[in-house]
């Protein structure tokens, strides 16, 4: 039986109330929509905030990171400055070259994959490198062999260089034929004169051993190339290029763009005259050979400016030939190797005596054959009784005994002060590596016999440049000017960078210098009855020549004592005495003194002076040097 109507209405009402009251907790379709919408709004807010952070605050960093993943930075080598002589003749310059290389890891993978995907073609890594080796060797005959290239291709490493110093046009042909071969821009140093001035210019080559790639460039190893490496090197530039698959070693062709151009180095202008340098090197080498000497050095210096026109060793290296890169051949003995000069050093005593006014050129001294100095006996090079020599005669005939008599009148302190004014025992400051200061024993170490050695050029040492510098002071009216081999530097834009003015020391008065210069003309005098100097063969027709010969004993390495047969044969001369233009210094190392050429360097001076007079059209002297008595009754 159905329930009463009133009851049914209450249940329906209650059920309706329960449905309405339960609506908030029942998962209806409309409720789900609201929840999803809230979540989406939250996600969008977070994404928006992240986007703002990325684009507003991290965009630059992330962009750079992305760029770095698809580009590589390439160093642009700076062109190294040239080294030229005083007339602009190139002694050293650079040419652009290519170094061919290969990414072996990538090449193996690429050709292994190709062989697997194309077995019918019969091409693989081995066939590819065989073809490349044959092609490259044919393009570069004499530079690399096919066998060398095959060995390089089969190295057990990821990367290798194949060949360097390749002409750019040939490198382009090779990389066009074999795109997997890389081409790196480098440079090579050219020395057109081979051995010409190589002892001065030195050597530079491509260096890539520094971890910093920007420092991979031509760098000096010796000579001025080393001393002025920073000025010559310039500043490298940079460019960026796109890379394939994020591999820095695979640059996409045509994508390179500069971000900083390279700045070339400065050119170095020397005081050398390449023609004079060639003649001096040739004549010196020939003379050394004729004299059977162990070696020799020579210098030609401007009498007033100290500029060096030529600086030579009889043997030197060829920077174009690595086979000559030996310590012996690369040693610039003109500045690195001091020697005991012998009688050339008597100019110190002559100058000091005249400057002090204790003697005149015509003063006469009685000179015996020998003289006792403390525990040793000094004697002249020729046997004679007591002779009346003029002061001029003592130096023209190179009397050891007479020189020591004058030195004793001076005293050691005045003599040493004059030696120091001449710059002996001090650096010349020329800027060549390995320069020696020479040696002068400290005053407090002198023994009783030391002053019997020094005035005649024994017991002290000097280089050929220092030796010539003493005579330059006499030629230049008593003013010793620091020798120079660098004339100027020139920037890439042509701006000239002048060198600091050379240091100068007034050694003696102009009058003293002229007196000494005139006195030393008698060295080349040829007379009768003992009135000849030691070097008539140095005389040059039409010119008055001042000069001095020297024979310095060498220490015998076997005994540690002075040798009776090993000598330094020296000569220093001024062209011309009445109007000085050049000073020439020569040293022969242990020649055969029984030979005419080994006994004296005066004939070599004559030949050098003759060439200089012609090349520079040096005016003739006003007349012959006056004949003066060297020995009197």
Protein architecture, described:
With 633 residues, the chain is an alpha+beta fold. Helices cover 34% and strands 23% of the residues. Strands 2, 3, 4, 5, 10, 18 and 19 form a seven-stranded mixed beta sheet that branches. Helix 5 (125-139) runs antiparallel to helix 6 (146-153) and helix 13 (346-356) crosses helix 18. The model is unreliable at 1-27 (pLDDT under 50).
What are the main properties of this structure?
633 residues; alpha+beta; 7-stranded mixed beta sheet; 20 helices; elongated; disordered N terminus
* Structural class assignment: alpha+beta
Q: What is the helix tally?
A: 20
Distance between the termini: 184 Å
- Oligomeric category: single chain
Number of strands: 24
The averaged pLDDT comes out at: 89
Global Rg = 42 Å
Rough shape? elongated
Strand content bin: 15-25%
Largest sheet: 7 strands, mixed
Percent helix, as a range, is 25-40%
Low-confidence stretches: 1-27
